[in-house]
Amino acid sequence: MKLLSSFFCFSPILFGLVFASTNVTADEIRVAVSGNFVGTMSALVNEFESKTEHRVTIIPGSTGKHYAQITHGAPFDLFFAADSLRPELLDSKGLVEPDSRFTYAIGKLILWGTSPKIIDSKVGIVGDDFRYLAIANPKLAPYGKAAKEVLQAKGLWDEIQGKLVRGENIAQTYQFVASGNADLGFVAYSQLLIAGEPINGSYWEVPGALYSPIEQQAVLLRDGEASKAFLDYVKSDEALEIIQSFGYGTR
């Protein structure tokens, strides 16, 4: 398994140079993955590779940027988004293989801080004695959009603007909090399960009624035996158990 960092700025020319120099064979799969799902995807890929001769390269990044890259011709084989909107748009544009779109996970939003007293586990933020609150960019990241909806629902969106820091994606948002650059932030529940951070901090499991469901969908961008085999594996009972163990809901 290979893991590639996502580009901060998309350039069709740069993508062409990068992938033109890569000797791609039929059993190599390039998978664009939302930042929140990278840890889970790594576990799935490890199991898949142990059972087949196929190899998978993971390209992490925000769903919004991956969407833009795909519409400009980025040579990904599969796209695992953090929402259903972008896969639906790609489907409507005829940029995915017919009937390939499906929901692979349902995300859960968590408000997390490294201080044991900064968050009340029942009501969320305690007071306003903090410097910065991190969220993913609501325009690019579905978890950021969900965080904005929560703050709006609690009547805090306007008054908290001076304390907001926006991550490029949910992975960067998590790092803002973990590094201490932000006192607290809205992250994916799966990130906390992987890192074990709730033990050392405080967190609030945000009620689902406060934000739109984070229905994460995947699509097949390029037809191929290896890509189809991987999608079949992701839909298997074994894979669903792995996904659930990382804190996601499944259908």
Walkthrough of the structure:
This protein has about 250 residues and is α/β, with parallel strands linked by helices. The protein has two domains: about 1-105 and about 215-245, Periplasmic binding protein-like II (D-Maltodextrin-Binding Protein, domain 2, 3-Layer(aba) Sandwich), CATH 3.40.190; about 110-205, Periplasmic binding protein-like II (D-Maltodextrin-Binding Protein, domain 2), CATH 3.40.190.10. About 35% of the residues lie in helices and about 25% in strands. It has nine helices and 13 strands. The chain has helices at about 10-20, 40-50, 65-70, 85-90, 140-155, 170-180, 190-195, 225-235, 235-245, and strands at about 1-5, 30-35, 55-60, 80, 100-105, 110-115, 120, 125, 135, 165, 185-190, 200-205, 215-220. The strands form three sheets. The chain has a six-stranded mixed β-sheet. A hairpin with a 3-residue loop joins strand 7 (about 120) and strand 8. The longest helix has 14 residues, at about 40-50. The protein is globular. The two termini are about 25 Å apart. Residues about 5-25 have low confidence and may be disordered.
